[in-house]
Design goal:
heterodimer; A: alpha+beta; 5-stranded antiparallel β-sheet; 9 strands; B: mainly alpha
């Protein structure tokens, strides 16, 4: 019964979101507030029905109802409750329903936040959002119905992929989906602006929170995925330019550009048509990401639904979104273009630089990700495009962006004084050169890593300089003035410091990581990266739904001695064994231990153990956290402003 | 082949004594794709095949092959798909040129945005001092 009720509720959500689309668009065309109210309440119904449907799906997973196909394929009675619940979105069908749910909730939130928008703009945005939700629901119900039954019902489930039974991975998909689907809201507003034929500061003000929510969630989502890869996959890496990583990274880059250019449009009114175009591109990239993951055109560990029909359907959805988006843009955008002028050296000018840089980066990643498919289609040859290409294409672009990043917040709008800004940043520059010199002192010939770390220090210190300057603006640097700094200043500083810290960690880890594999018998030691690791014992251990082989090691580092345990787990439901690594973090980086195969030697039991030294790797995750925190502070700043500043200030919309 | 692998496995069990050789092996192992895995280099795969391929890399290094010779060895044996570094030939000129072409396009867009007479613009500060 529960599954059937879930399917009915999903159908109700579909009907309600179709009503939301129809009434919203019609209300916009006629400026009819009664119709707009119907669209808004349809959005409520759609969101509520989708929430109920999703809650019922969770219930099915918690009850382990194996007569439902998705539950059978992705759950098991022995699984801990957390992973039963997480199993709901750890599969294709459930994650699509989550997609619909999030989209419906963004529709609801838009219906409740008219802000400074005019009636027509607001109603149309709700309508477009309804159409997006409806499209996703049609796809879900027809091609990936999570409520489909099995007959006869099997007795046991096949279990969730053991790799995915992890707390970070339980949170990763919902975060990523909030980000992906969050980009549908700027898209809806962009289409509404094109239909209205205007995109002014009030419109940009309405768009900013959505772009920021999407960017913040993508930041945390990608960060969680990367952290998971680091400690779960057992090879010490955190980013591999995997097609599915790229699929989430491209929308992130576009969202990052959007967050910045929407500020320019809101504050200055300029770049409006670029903000619109970027909103369309960002949502297109989010859908493309869904397509790449779901269609199986790219081989990847993440592609868990390999079904050509689904791929074609997502591609069709993408074609509609991009076709409508770009078509409307080509038709209506020329009418919008009334850009206010600005000098090349100005806050706007550097924002344009930022946007072009991020767009080129997203484009280069897109080309690299799709290129093997194109080559295979054209010549039949199978080639791989991997890290060597992406690193060459991506790193110089980021270097250029980060060189300029500290300047932007110090420049005035319209026309800035680059010389004065550079003089303000003298300390950041000195620190950057000093840290590059220190790197060269310890590692001869490491010129590129030294430059990279220098740039990271420049970006980090530059953001601190900005904070210092804002503190001293218009009065002495007192504690009271420090506490009174606006949230938006903290948001900018946190995000930019995070980007710099991330750069330092990424460069250090990539350039200076080292590894050592050794076959050790209990009692034997290895000295590596300044630590002496001794294998104490290898014993079996029993988990709730797995058996583990656990190696216990003693690691001596300086005067400190730690005991660490690294495991290999075999799950009762089968599948490849997973690794649980031991990570000992110290100031110079992580000492990372992964247990490998048994390696019998001279009749004595021994095990292959891989040791990695990952210098400064924790800075990567701290950097991502700070960036996400910056996004969250930015949202708080926007929310506070909405409460304190009356809408009428920008009510021109 | 089996004998070569067995020999290679024996070699690999002992970590290479020479740190330069070990560094070369690590770098190469990140560029060579594990042929039975999904999109993983042999450096990070736990599959048995990846272990054999890692052993093969180290054996070739011991035998005195250069990096390019080792890449060619793997390409001849498993096809181009095995190399994460795409080849540079007629099929991939566009790939390698893509970043530069995109930068040119961006520069063109920036140029079209450019307005004459920078001096005509006066600096402006936000009401909230930003």
């Amino acid at each position: 019964m529960i599954a059937e009720l879930g399917a009915v509720l999903a159908a109700v959500a579909l009907i309600a979101s179709l009503a939301q689309a129809g009434f919203g668009l019609r209300a916009g065309a006629r400026s009819d507030s009664a119709l707009a109210a119907i669209a808004a309440s349809s959005a409520q119904t759609a969101a509520f029905a989708a929430l109920m449907a999703f809650a019922l799906l969770i219930t099915l997973f918690v009850q382990s109802d194996f007569s439902v196909a998705v539950v059978q394929a992705n759950s098991h009675i022995d699984k801990p409750l957390l992973y039963k619940i997480a199993g709901t979105w750890g599969n294709h069908e459930g994650s699509m329903l989550l997609w619909c749910l999030v989209s419906a909730f963004f529709g609801l939130a838009m219906a409740h936040n008219r802000g400074a928008m005019g009636l027509g703009m607001w109603a149309r945005a709700i309508g477009v959002q309804g159409a997006v939700t409806a499209g996703a629901l049609i796809y879900t119900l027809i091609l990936s119905n999570p409520f489909a039954r099995l007959d006869p019902a099997p007795y046991a489930g096949s279990g969730l992929n053991p790799l995915l039974q992890d707390p970070a991975l339980a949170a990763h998909p919902p975060m990523l989906y909030l980000g992906y689907v969050g980009l549908s809201a700027p898209f809806s507003l962009a289409i509404a602006a094109l239909l209205e034929g205007k995109a002014n500061q009030g419109w940009a003000r309405a768009l900013r929170p959505w772009a920021l929510i999407a960017w913040t969630c993508l930041t945390f989502g990608i960060g969680l995925g990367s952290y998971w890869a680091y400690y779960e996959l057992g090879w010490g890496g955190w980013w591999f330019w995997d097609p599915v990583e790229n699929a989430s990274f491209m929308p992130w880059l576009a969202a990052c550009a959007l967050v910045h250019c929407a500020i320019v449009t809101e504050r200055r009114g300029s770049l409006a048509s670029w903000t619109i175009l970027l909103s369309i591109i960002a949502f297109g990239l989010a859908l493309l990401g869904t397509f790449l993951v779901r269609s199986g055109v790219l081989t990847s560990v993440h592609a868990f639904a390999v079904d050509p029909r689904r791929g074609v359907a997502v591609l069709a959805l993408l074609a509609v979104v991009l076709g409508v988006g770009f078509g409307l843009y080509a038709w209506r955008a020329p009418g919008l273009a009334k850009p206010a002028g600005f000098a090349a050296v100005s806050r706007e000018g550097l924002m344009v630089f930022n946007n072009l840089g991020l767009a080129v980066a997203a484009g280069a990643v897109l080309v690299g990700t799709l290129y093997p498919i194109a080559v295979e289609a054209a010549t039949g040859d199978l080639i791989s495009v991997g890290p060597p290409y992406f690193n060459i294409a991506f790193a110089p672009l980021m270097a250029a962006l980060f060189l300029v990043m500290p300047l932007a917040p110090l420049l005035t709008w319209r026309k800035g004084d680059a010389g004065a800004a550079l003089r303000t940043l003298w300390l950041a520059g000195a620190l950057a050169f000093a840290s590059a010199a220190i790197v060269l002192l310890f590692r001869n010939n490491a010129i590129i890593p030294a430059a990279g770390i220098g740039i990271g220090v420049w970006a980090t210190a530059g953001a601190f300089v900005y904070l210092w300057k804002r503190w001293g603006q218009g009065g002495p640097r007192s504690a009271a003035r420090f506490a009174a700094l606006p949230l938006s200043v903290w948001a900018l500083a946190a995000a930019h410091i995070g980007a710099g810290v991330l750069t330092i960690g990424a460069v250090a880890e990539t350039a200076f990581r080292s590894e050592r594999a050794a076959a050790l018998a209990p009692g034997e030691s290895i000295t590596f990266a300044g630590r002496t690791a001794t294998l104490l014992e290898v014993a079996e251990a029993q988990g709730p739904n797995y058996t583990a082989l656990r190696a216990t090691l003693r690691v001596a580092h300086g005067g400190r001695v730690d005991v660490a345990a690294a495991e290999r787990r075999a799950y009762s439901t089968g599948g490849a064994p997973t690794t649980e690594v031991a990570i000992l973090s110290a100031l110079d980086g992580d000492f990372y231990i992964a247990l490998g195969e048994a390696a019998a030697r001279d009749g004595q039991a021994a095990w292959t153990i891989r040791f990695y030294h990952n210098p400064l790797v924790q800075l990567i995750f701290w950097g991502v956290t700070l960036m996400g925190l910056g996004g969250a502070l930015g949202l708080a700043a926007l929310a506070r402003r909405r409460r304190t500043a009356p809408h009428s200030a920008l009510a021109a919309a | 082949m089996i004998a070569a692998l067995a020999f290679a496995a024996a070699v690999a069990a002992q970590p290479p004594a020479d740190p330069a050789a070990a560094a070369r092996a690590q770098a190469l192992e990140q560029e060579i794709r594990c042929v039975v895995c999904q999109n993983e280099p042999i450096s990070q795969s736990t599959a048995e095949m990846a272990g054999d391929m890692r052993a093969l890399v180290r054996a070739r290094i011991e035998a005195g092959d250069s990096d390019d010779e080792i890449r060619a060895f793997f390409r001849d044996r498993y096809g181009e798909f095995v190399l994460f570094r795409p080849p540079f030939d007629a099929r991939t000129y566009l790939l390698w040129a893509a970043p530069a072409l995109l930068i040119l396009a961006a520069a063109g867009a920036a140029y079209s945005l450019r307005r004459r007479g920078d001096a005509a613009f006066a600096p402006e500060t936000d009401p909230d001092g930003r």
